[in-house]
Specification:
5 strands; 122 residues; 17% strand; elongated; alpha/beta
Length: 122
Amino acid sequence: MRHILLDQNAPRGLPLILPHHDVQTVYRLGWAELSNGELLRAAERDGFEVIITGDQNIEHQNDLGGSRLAVVVLGTIHWPTIRANPQPVREAVARATPGSYVVVIFPRPKLRRRPPPRNGVA
């Protein structure tokens, strides 16, 4: 079981696909107003092992060197896409090591075509 923090932009449904982990949200902890750097330091200080975020710039905005906190960045925050493909998130969490950084890529959803108009008028 991992101690995981969900950033404010991570889908709220993520605990549903990570049932064997202790998953907390920044909102629940009262950390929603912290800057990314402050949030990463607070998470590490409070013993979180992994932070899951949708912020794809977090690596460039913060010095992650020397951190014990693993950062998992979601390639999309679209919950239906993640819910349909939970395994990449689960694998990223399972493989996370102190200080690691990984971007989780999801397959593109299939395009759905609109049905043709019934009376031939668009």
